[in-house]
From TrEMBL:
GO terms for molecular function: RNA lariat debranching enzyme activator activity. Residues 413-500 form the Cwf19-like protein C-terminal domain. One of its GO terms (cellular component) is post-mRNA release spliceosomal complex. InterPro entries: Cwf19-like, Cwf19-like_C_dom-1, Cwf19-like_C_dom-2, HIT-like_sf. GO terms for biological process: mRNA splicing, via spliceosome. This is YGR093W-like protein. It comes from the Eukaryota. It comes from Saccharomyces mikatae IFO 1815. Residues 256-378 form the Cwf19-like C-terminal domain. Coiled coil: none annotated. Pfam families: CwfJ_C_1 (PF04677), CwfJ_C_2 (PF04676).
Length: 506
């Protein structure tokens, strides 16, 4: 099988000479490449570029006044403007769209019209902007639905974006219904100190369909936005193992063949009667409640804290939802655990704490997520929440619209009245600045038949903590080996020893 060796490098106009010299060195060392693609902000055609000894070079640049055009500026250099599709002599096709978001909106019709003419998939797609679902996946607040349209239509084997000039990002491969695999990357610019050039091999003949399935394949982000039917793979939108099952039940309900999944305690990830319970992660077991470290923790060790500190408070009984009016003892016990953790985080590690939970009759096994937050970030919580709410409500219109109310304590009458209503379903953040002061509670209700973003809590906190790559618990970034999980749990136990209430519980 014939392969093409391709290099994509992001260069800005100011550094072009220096960067091209570097590209030459890369070409000598890791090449020769068959093709070098360079997205560049703007390009002055008069620049005298020394491209001797380089293979075919495509410079992709924008120029608001020139529409779609290409120009050969020397034997081996072609300049491509704004948007279009280019076919190489070896058969490789490349589509490109350099417009930033504002211009994309303006030129939407022209752009979509141009790409609607293409009747097959392309090999490489280069766009300035990211698609929305991927952008959202790593809590970036940019991205364009026009890019989504292109990504879906062209199903490029490699999609490169370059709007984030400072960070390299690579999404795990995903698959289209045709069996074709796609990869998405953001390439930062030369001078960012990050990986600004990316080399890869691509088979020319098989059109990407024979590529064997990589082990890190993820659900296709473009066809798995919280919406349709049973095609949607399990792993998207899951905040936690349990949420995965919850989502199945939500979708199941919506399907025509109305199949509601019931998770029995013997197969519930949080029930002791499940033989596969991950008991190496248990920190403490009380009378009604137990505590575990989180699988694929969101937070990372920071400052004095040598553990992620992300943990789960779980009722021992298999209940989907907490009904404090009926089960006051359990509710109290959960709050007692919550306080003990808030205290440990504050006293031992100088950290504040945020607790996130979903109270839904469609959940499988109720639990709370407890995450330590550095003191300097805690006051930024509300604006982080606000941004994600905006994103949820405006961009993901299929999701339940969220509107958060704030309460000043667990004993606020309004709050107590609300949560004692058996029919109410809600998302809740409890923000503890110190162990002594009353926490602020932010709560948004939803209807049982509405689709909610189960990752919402994690998304808000990942944004607050500036850990965009840690939104998904089951990503390679977050998942730990069993050994790491055990070590984390042991360290947690050691730190928690003096605060553990299971010892004093009667
Ligand atoms: Zn259970």
């Amino acid at each position: 099988m014939t392969n093409a060796k391709i290099l994509v490098a992001h260069i800005s106009e100011n550094d072009i000479d220096e960067a091209i010299r570097k590209v030459k060195r890369v070409n000598e060392k890791s090449g020769p490449f068959d093709l070098i693609v360079v997205p560049i902000q703007s390009f002055d055609e008069m620049v005298n570029l020394n491209t001797d000894d380089l293979p075919q070079l495509l410079l992709i640049s924008s120029d608001k006044n020139s529409g779609s055009k290409s120009k050969k500026i020397s034997e081996n250099v072609t300049l491509l403007y704004n948007f279009g599709t280019y076919k190489l002599t070896n058969g490789i096709t490349l589509s490109y769209l350099t417009y930033p978001r504002e211009i994309l909106q303006e030129q939407r019709k022209i752009v979509l019209n141009e790409f609607s003419k293409i009747d097959s998939e392309v090999d490489v797609l280069i766009t300035k902007e990211w698609g929305l679902p991927i952008s959202e996946k790593c809590t970036r607040l940019s991205g364009s639905e026009i890019i989504d349209e292109l990504a879906k239509k062209l199903q490029a084997r490699y999609h490169f974006a370059f709007s984030d000039e400072m960070s390299f990002y690579e999404l795990e491969p995903f698959k289209w219904e045709s069996g074709r695999l796609s990869r998405f990357l953001n390439i930062p610019k030369y001078g960012s100190g990050k990986k600004w050039a990316y080399a890869f091999n691509m088979s020319i003949e098989d059109n990407g369909k024979d590529e064997s399935e990589p082990p890190n394949l993820i659900a296709n982000p473009y066809i798995s936005v919280i919406t349709d039917s049973n095609k949607r793979p399990l792993e998207t939108g899951t905040d936690n193992l349990i949420d995965a099952s919850l989502q199945l039940s939500i979708n199941g309900e919506k399907n025509k063949n109305k199949k509601i999944r019931t998770i029995l305690p013997s197969s519930c990830h949080f029930c002791f009667s499940n033989p596969n319970l991950e008991d190496h992660m248990i920190i403490s077991i009380g009378k009604l409640v137990y505590l575990t470290t989180a699988k694929g923790p969101l937070s990372v060790p920071k400052g004095d804290m040598d553990i992620s500190g992300h943990c789960l408070i779980i009722p021992i009984e298999h209940i989907p939802k907490l009904d404090p009016s009926k089960n006051a003892e359990l509710a109290q016990s959960i709050l007692a655990y919550e306080s003990s953790l808030v205290k440990m985080n504050y006293v031992k590690f100088d950290m504040c704490t945020i607790v996130f939970e979903i109270q839904s009759e469609r959940s499988i096994h109720f639990h709370k997520q407890v995450i330590p937050i550095p003191k300097y970030l805690i006051l930024k919580f509300f604006s982080a929440l606000d941004r994600q709410v905006h994103f949820n409500n405006e961009k993901f219109t299929r999701n339940a619209k969220l509107e958060f109310q704030t309460y000043d304590s667990h004993s606020s009458k309004e709050y107590v009245d609300l949560i004692n209503k058996q029919s109410v379903n809600y998302l809740q953040f409890t923000v503890y600045e110190t162990p002594e002061s009353h926490p602020k509670i932010h709560l948004a209700t939803f209807n049982a038949d509405e689709t909610i973003d189960l990752q919402f809590g994690r998304r808000v906190l990942a944004f607050l903590l500036n850990l965009p790559r840690r939104v998904k618990w089951n990503s390679t970034t977050c998942l730990q080996t069993k050994q790491q999980e055990s070590t984390e749990t042991e360290k947690f136990q050691k730190a928690y020893k003096d605060y553990d209430i299971s010892i004093t519980e009667s």
